Amino acid sequence: MLVNMNEVLLPAQKGKYGVGMFNAVNLEMARGIIAAAEKANSPVIMGTAEVFFSYCPLEEAAYYLIPMAKKAKVPVVIHLDHGMTEEACVQALELGFTSIMYDCSLESYDVNVRKVKEMAKLAHSFGATVEGELGHVGDNEGSYEGEHGMEDPSAFFTDPEVAKDFVHQTGIDALAIAVGTAHGAYKRPPKLDFDRIETISKTTSVPLVLHGGSGLSDSDFQQAIYSGISKVNVFTEINTAAVEAMFRQFTSFNKGMIDLIPATVESIKEKVLEKMEVFGSCNRA
Length: 285
Ligand code: 13P
Description:
Layout: E1 2-3, H1 5-15, E2 19-23, H2 27-40, E3 44-49, H3 58-71, E4 76-83, H4 86-95, E5 99-102, H5 109-125, E6 129-134, E7 138-139, H6 160-170, E8 174-177, E9 182-183, H7 194-203, E10 208-210, H8 218-227, E11 229-234, H9 236-249, H10 257-279
Parallel strand pairs: 1-4, 2-3, 2-11, 3-4, 4-5, 5-6, 6-8, 7-9, 8-10, 10-11
Helix pairs in contact: 2-3, 2-10, 6-7, 7-8, 9-10
């Protein structure tokens, strides 16, 4: 069933488990994600990000994402991840996405507050939820999400007191925080600031979001969730799991594209299931 983010994150915040957000840039990814959620009887957040529109335009993604969520046996949120422009966010709402992230984290604080507050008002009028970002989660080199490498990521960590004000002023439903993760494949093991997560979870009321989930250890995830994270974003790991499956499956040029589809879907399903178990969201649908 198609739901918004509050319907899955508020119970997660209360029950101290995490709900995974996985981008589904094509139909195979979406099939794998839904199959995993149904098998695990887990809520799930699925979507696409503005940076992926060149691979699959938002409108075309909506053609499969929304009907698949409606048909699913478990709660599915259809979310625009990292909406960078007002146009993309508004288009997602008009297409029926039940949740959007409006990422103005590289703007000044005042601009971030003003833009996200306006977007939250609009999204709420659609019955949709909004995620904002404060501080800035950077990207590892070669990340699919972008190229915002940072010399000193800790300089962009989220300030707990500012987070309190940001949530209060904007009216957002979930807050993405910068606590040591980055998008894409890590070159060195990330070092998460768990104390900061805990402090932010005490100063703000809304569910907290951890971006850059690929490459984190199971214990990092569990400690982050224990410290106050309710939503965990993972993309790179499912993207590379799929291509590894295709590579294993492609044994000769007698094979066609369709021969690779079942293994691709299965690899996504297995990877998503693995994460759901770690996040503790199984049997929470
Ligand atoms: P990874 O690609 O590093 O898993 O990050 C996903 C993400 O945070 C999407 O917003």
